[in-house]
Amino acid sequence: MNGRFTQWRNWVGFWLLGLCNNFAYVVMLSAAHDILKKQESENATIHNTTLNNLNQSVFAVLLADILPTLVIKLFAPFVIHKLPYGFRVLFCVIMAATSFLLVSLSSAVWISILGVIFASISSGLGELSFLSLTAFFSRDVLAGWGSGTGGAGVAGALLYSGLHPSWPVPPEHTSHCAVTNYSCEKGLLKFVVPLGLVYFAEYFINQGLMELLYFPNFFLSHAEQYRWYQTLYQFGVLLSRSSLCCVKIRKLWALSFLQVVNAVLLLFAVRYQFLPSAWLVFAVVLYEGLLGGAAYVNTFYFISKETEDREREFAMAAASVGDSLGIALAGLAAFPVHRYFCHL
């Protein structure tokens, strides 16, 4: 009885950690356009800013939301084990709280972007730390963590849309993988590359194509269609990240391939306008979220299962760079594609 209670307590604990860790990150992504639009409308010196410049600023927000996370995940796994988990969590909380204050109270674009950077630092360091922390628990907590991060996506997107005015502690541990981290990294490539490819295709859709999938004769406005795309995508992520207790997918390359097919389909849909209704896009973005969430949670489950105990803490932290690298590269690729379609 005590063992089952402990198992559920740990699962719920990691669910809450996932929810809190990703919440600020999701809100900043959902609010990217409105953050800049607010600044544009309040600053009298830039009333004549073109839509193209606004789109460039939106991409600046999106990159500010992912690049700090990418840098942290690239370098922190080699040194982060020297810092106690309690200190890391406190730092993440301070960064997240500061990010909300900066964005909500800012009167200039650069202050808003600084707030987004703080949210990215909090999310990136938190994800890396909490994934490392799972090495001290049973693999069941990965299902809780994955479900919580998916829940953050839905909660962040829904809460932002709803509030929009017009619409146990483990002992400190030093990773023994420091000596063998090179071999660790080589072994992780079979997980990191498919995960990165899934996220590249996923965020290429989200950052470069989703806003352009507009149906003027649909009963929802352009902004409302875009918000529903984001909400349904996040709901798909929640469902698949919560599915680890029911189904496990070892063929990660299959998920990568299917996500790339999604990206190609929507790329041609934007160019040739052959989709008849937003309802079809709703189905595709829900499916997109299902694939992305499944890739994330299954990647870390099989890393935890297939790495040795002495390497697991480092492996869980180092592999988290895959999704961030894919997102960053997607942002760089999506920007010129978005500009090209806007100028047609």
The number of distinct helices, counting runs of at least 4 residues, comes to 12
Q: How would you describe the shape?
A: globular
CA radius of gyration:
20 Å
Unreliable spans are 44-51, 165-180
Question: What is the CATH architecture assignment?
Answer: Up-down Bundle
> Secondary-structure element sequence?
HHHHHHHHHHHH
Going by CATH, the homologous superfamily would be MFS general substrate transporter like domains
Global structural class: mainly alpha
The counted number of beta strands is 0
- The CATH class assignment is Mainly Alpha
Helix content: over 70%
Account of the 3D structure:
Belongs to the battenin family. The chain crosses the membrane at residues 12-36, 56-76, 85-103, 109-130, 142-163, 252-272, 278-302, 314-335. The chain is mostly helical. It has one domain: Growth Hormone, Chain: A (Up-down Bundle). The protein has 12 helices and no strands. The protein has helices at 2-30, 32-42, 51-75, 85-105, 109-133, 140-163, 181-209, 222-241, 252-272, 278-306, 309-319, 321-342. Helix 1 packs antiparallel against helix 5 (109-133) and helix 8 runs parallel beside helix 10 (278-306). The model is unreliable at 44-51 and 165-180 (pLDDT under 50).
Overview features:
single chain, about 350 residues, mainly alpha, Growth Hormone, Chain: A, about 80% helix, globular, MFS_trans_sf
In short, what is this structure?
Keywords: Lysosome, Membrane, Transmembrane, Transmembrane helix, Transport. With 344 residues, the chain is an all-alpha fold.
